[in-house]
Every structure is written in C-alpha cells, then in structure tokens.
Amino acid sequence: MSLRLQINLIIGLMLACFASLLIGLQLQDTRRSVADEMEGANMVATQLLSRLQAVSQQTSMNDMRDFLSQLGRVRANEIVLLDLDGNQLYHSPPPVYKAGRDAPQWYSRIVSPSVKSREIRLAQGRLLVRADPSRAVLDGWDEFVPMLITLFTGVAVVILLVYWLLGRALRPIQQVVHGLQEVGRGDYDIRLPDMHGQEAQMMGYAFNSMADSLQEGMAARERAREATQALAQSRELTHVIQARIEEVRGQIARELHDELGQQVTAIKSVGMAIAHRAKGVDKQIEDSARMVMDCADAIYEEVHQLVTKLRPLALDRFGLQDALQDLWEEAQSRHPNVQITLSVDAPLDKLADNLATAVYRIMQESLTNALRHAQASHIEMQVRQNQDKLHIEVKDDGNGPAKDWQSSGHFGVVGMGERAQGLGGHLVFEALLPQGARVWAELPLIHNPTHG
Known about the structure:
The chain is α+β, with helices and mostly antiparallel strands. Among the domains are: 3-169, no CATH class; 318-452, 2-Layer Sandwich (Heat Shock Protein 90), CATH 3.30.565.10. Helices cover 62% and strands 13% of the residues. It has helices at 3-55, 61-71, 105-111, 134-169, 171-184, 198-278, 283-310, 313-317, 320-334, 353-372, 411-422, and strands at 77-83, 88-91, 117-121, 125-131, 339-345, 378-386, 389-396, 426-431, 437-444. The protein has a 5-stranded mixed β-sheet, covered by helices on one side. A 4-stranded antiparallel β-sheet has the order 2-1-4-3, with helices on one face. α5 runs parallel beside α6. The longest helix has 81 residues, at 198-278.
C-alpha cells in the first residue's frame, strides 16, 4: 500500500469519525426535541380533555363525540373515545401537516421516544390520549437529510482534495524512488533535479550526494580491483622471476664450484709440484710457486663464498637443515664475538623447493642485516612448525630498524615480504624494546610432491 493511500485512509478515517460524531449529536438533539414536543403536546391535550371529565355526568357520549369532532386534532396527539363496552366511538383525524409522508422506520426507531397512552375516565366511557411523534420525527428527518448530504459531500471533497494535494506533495518521493530504482539497475550517473519545498530540496541534495559518493566508491572499487589484479599479476611475475633467478644462481654456483673449482685445484696442484721440484734448487722459483698456491687458495675461498651467496649447494644436495647449519657455522666463524644461536623444531627434509628456498633466503637476509647493520651482540634464529604453518623468527639486540627502512631502496626487507606473500604467507619486521629488531614470518607448509 502506497504512502499516499495510507495517509488518505487515515484522514478518511478521521473524517468518518468526525462525521459519525456530528450525526450522533444530530440524532441525539432530534430525539430530545421530539421528546420535548411529545411531552408538551400530551400535557396540553390531557389538561384540555380532563375538563370533560367534570361535565361527563350531564353530557351524553354522542354530545362528547360531536365536541371532539368539532375540536379536531389536538397538537400531535391521537384521541380515541370508547364506550363502556370498549367500542370506538371516535378517533382523531390524521395529521394534515406534511400529509402523506413519513420518516424511514429506522430513523423513527432511533429518534422516537417511548410513547405512553393516558386514559381519562368518563361517566359513560373513557378517553385514550396517545402522543403521535411522526410529524416531529419527519421534521427532524427533513433537517437530517440535507445535513447528511452536505456532510458526505464535504468529506468526499476533502478526501479528493487531500489525495490530490498529497500527490503533489509526495511527487519528490516518487522522484527519489525512481532515482533509487535507476541506481539499483546500475545507472550511477542519475541525479535528481531541483525540487520545490525545503524537505524536497533536502532529499534531492541527500540523494545526489549519495549518488556522487556511490559513483566515487564504485570507481575507487574498480581501481582497487584493477590494482589488486595488477598486484597479483606482479606478485606472480615476481615469484616466477625469483624462481628463475634461483635457478640461474644454482646453475652459476654449480658451474663455479665444479669447473672453476677444478681449475683452481689444478693450478694449486701444479704450483705445489713446481715448488717441490724447485725446493733446494731455485729459491726464487719455489717462492713464486708458493705464491701461486696462495693465490689459488684465495681464489678458491672467494669462489666458495660467491657460491654460497649465489646458491648454497647444501640446499640442493643435503636439504634445508644442513644449509641452515652451514649458514650458522659460517656466520659464527666470521663473527666470533657475536653469540648466534640456531633452533630448528620442524621437519625440513620434505619441504617443497620453493618453500625451502624462501626459508633459507629469509634467514640469510635477516642474519646479514643483523650482522652488517644492527651491530648486534646476540642473534637468535628459530624455525618451528605449528600445525600446518612454518614459523620463522630472527631476533637481535642491535640498533633496531633504521628510521627510513620503509622508504624506497631497502629491497632486502621488501624481497623477504614478497617471498612470504608469494607463498601465501606474511612477514613482519619490527623493533623490539628496549632495543633490537625482530623478523617474523609465517608460511603455509608445502611438501615436496616427490615425498608425498
């Protein structure tokens, strides 16, 4: 049911109640007037006819009848003359006022009072006097009908007028509803025109503001969707690039370790042979040969460090557990004044290659940052498993994160975060109180399919 119809029904109900009240008051007033009229008429007739009782001894019933006939109708009363046997000798004539018309029965029952007959005893008979309210009721009906017509006409006119005025007043709401329907269909460019009335202008302004905000929100959502899609594609590309980089690093590391390592070993062997032959024969050649051996050792050490940075061979040959152990031992040997602890509480032998590589790189980058930039004296490295998650944590008591670590150029932390997000996990880099820093990562477990 529309608001317009609801308001019209409410107003119509109120008008109906008001009309009913007026009708009730009119009927009550008419009933009271008829009752007063009947009381007065009956009293006059009774007083008049009571005089006949005194002369009834000297007057015959025929004379009494002739007198009543000459008297005629007495003010809204019916007079009946009966003899001692109950025979009717006279009945007053019908009323001539508005003769031939009577009010409806239902109306007469409502406004007519209870009528009582009065009896006057005569010497040779009796008189019955009964009030007749029909004329007074008819007068009331003649007044009631025009009032009823006027009232119903007024109510109908008021309802129609209110319905029309409500249509004009509620037109802005219809425009707002139409606008909302268009927005629901996806038309976010719709705007309401200027409308008359303070409330209508407020609704129009609110709707247009809502439409502007909704359009901006949809545009922002579309931009966010595109950005999310681009970010997902970028992360996927980054993941592929990182996998390719790791693959190339592994190839270079193996080539350096196998080919260059063999060549350096051969150079050292030749130098050792030359030094052995020149020993005691030519001091200069012996010293030169030993210098070549020292250079070969230095080259081999640099190659070993370079191979470890590119791709630890232990990670591919022996697994993540041994690779982390080698990382810890090398860091401890290079920084004997720093206390470094490694705790592994998780089975690492069945991890997928990309997960194992990510864990190693995050641990390697975190350890490097703590040793190179934080000037820490104590570093804790931990890997543990919690249900289907792998947790990585590296804490130190150093200087803490640099103030500008979130600005561009700090690719180490960004790279660790990208690795974690690429595997469906996340990474946190935060400062510790009173000093120090903490790298914490949570990665979903991915097992190597070859191990089940």
